[in-house]
């Protein structure tokens, strides 16, 4: 697997890959075994259970573009080893909105 070379991923970090096939549950969780920052080459700790399509460029113009549909079928890779907290402003008058 090749990732962008400007990421701060490291050995032991966890990732998730979404499904690209017909089954909605064909996703995989994995752990990074090796990462070469200079090339972006990523080696995972275990073999993936499912196939995940990947390409450098979007596929949105290749699938039924004559009908105006745009479909990018590349897998989503989600980096799970970073936590992000979203917190709303408790001083807001409108209590129905906010993180």
Question: Helices, strands, pairings?
Answer:
Layout: E1 14-17, E2 28-36, E3 41-44, E4 77-79
Antiparallel strand pairs: 1-2, 1-4, 2-3
Kindly report the average pLDDT value: 79
Shape: extended
Tell me the number of strands. Answer: 4
Task: Report Rg.
Answer: 18 Å
Uncertain stretches: none
Strand order of the largest sheet: 3-2-1-4
Q: What structural class should be given to the helix and strand makeup?
A: mainly beta
User: Biggest sheet, in brief?
Assistant: 4 strands, antiparallel
Please provide the ordered H/E string of secondary-structure elements: EEEE
Q: How helix-rich are the residues, as a percent range?
A: under 10%
Task: Compute the number of structural domains.
Answer: 1
Terminal CA distance: 34 Å
Number of DSSP helices?
0
* Beta-strand content bin: 15-25%
Give a nutshell description of this structure.
The chain is mainly β. It has strands at residues 14-17, 28-36, 41-44, 77-79.
Tell me about this structure:
- By secondary structure, this protein is an all-beta fold.
- The chain has one domain.
- 0% of the residues lie in helices and 20% in strands.
- It contains no helices and 4 strands.
- The chain has a 4-stranded antiparallel β-sheet with strand order 3-2-1-4, with no helix packed on it.
- A hairpin with a 4-residue loop joins strand 2 (28-36) and strand 3 (41-44).
- The radius of gyration is 18 Å and the shape is extended.
- The two termini are 34 Å apart.
- The model has no long low-confidence stretch (mean pLDDT 79).
